[in-house]
């Protein structure tokens, strides 16, 4: 166990109001691709750039092309929680972790057992008819042909925040409240370059800010502790 991980363990042991704020790096170890890594979605070739395809204007203008990409690359429904997800679920079960704030849309934190999860960018597991608001699960979307339609004839939209769309105010408020009140904030698996989500770090007022990431971030100098590496491997060395 390195000195950094020993220090992280000590900080966790001495805290009883922890919030975890995570990004795509938490789920890549479950086989879900991120957007900015070497093998991420930004570096694969499609008729349009991924950031264009998953925008609100593209969804409205070319829904069939949107869903072709979405079903092929963003619905990883067989993925299972990894070591990081399971550690955080145990930390909540013990009463030390009060909330997870995530940029991910895969639902793996809940699958691992976390109850209080603020999904900033929504979830692929929730889908609603834009006409009658009927709920549909992700498998319905995955198995649909072309554009998924409701039995009422309305188009079904995934409950995910596309580019050009705003975040849900209630979810953001909950995340801000949790981060403002916590005595320890662990940030992991995120480059901290996507706003407004990355700006949530500004609401933390304590002195136990920990960054866990495989690469450096613009916020490293603000951290009380920086642990570099794969988040699953690091959390796997910790005890709850």
UniProtKB/TrEMBL annotation:
E.C. designation(s): 2.3.1.286
Entry annotated with the keyword Iron: no
SUPFAM superfamilies: DHS-like NAD/FAD-binding domain
Enzyme class: transferase
Catalysed reactions, as listed in the record: N(6)-acetyl-L-lysyl-[protein] + NAD(+) + H2O = 2''-O-acetyl-ADP-D-ribose + nicotinamide + L-lysyl-[protein]
Superkingdom, natural source: Bacteria
UniProt binding sites for NAD(+): 24, 28, 35-36, 103, 105-106, 121, 190-191, 213, 231
Active site per database record: 121 (proton acceptor)
Compartment annotation: Cytoplasm
Function, as annotated: NAD-dependent protein deacetylase which modulates the activities of several enzymes which are inactive in their acetylated form.
Family to which the UniProt record says this protein belongs: Belongs to the sirtuin family. Class U subfamily.
Protein name as catalogued: NAD-dependent protein deacetylase
Lineage: Bacteria, Bacillati, Bacillota, Clostridia, Lachnospirales
């Amino acid at each position: 166990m390195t000195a950094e991980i020993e220090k992280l363990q000590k900080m966790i042991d001495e805290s009883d109001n922890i919030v975890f704020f995570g990004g795509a790096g938490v789920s890549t170890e479950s086989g879900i691709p991120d957007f900015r890594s070497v093998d991420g979605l930004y570096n694969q070739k499609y008729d349009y750039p991924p950031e264009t395809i998953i925008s609100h204007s593209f969804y409205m203008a070319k829904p069939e092309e949107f869903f072709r990409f979405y079903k092929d690359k963003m619905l990883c429904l067989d993925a299972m929680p990894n070591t990081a997800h399971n550690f955080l679920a145990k930390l909540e079960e013990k009463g030390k972790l009060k909330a997870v704030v995530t940029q991910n849309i895969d639902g793996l934190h809940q699958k691992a057992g976390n109850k209080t999860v603020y999904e900033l960018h929504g979830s692929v597991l929730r889908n609603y008819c834009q006409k009658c608001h009927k709920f549909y699960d992700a498998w319905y979307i995955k198995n649909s042909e072309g554009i998924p339609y409701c039995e009422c004839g309305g188009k079904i939209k995934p409950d995910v925040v596309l580019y050009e769309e705003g975040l849900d105010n209630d979810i953001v408020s909950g995340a801000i409240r949790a981060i403002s009140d916590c005595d320890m904030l662990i940030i992991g698996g995120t480059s901290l370059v996507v706003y407004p989500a990355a700006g949530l770090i500004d609401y933390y007022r304590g002195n136990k800010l920990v960054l866990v990431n495989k690469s450096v971030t613009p916020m490293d100098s603000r951290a009380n502790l920086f642990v570099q590496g794969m988040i699953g491997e690091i959390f796997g060395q910790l005890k709850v």
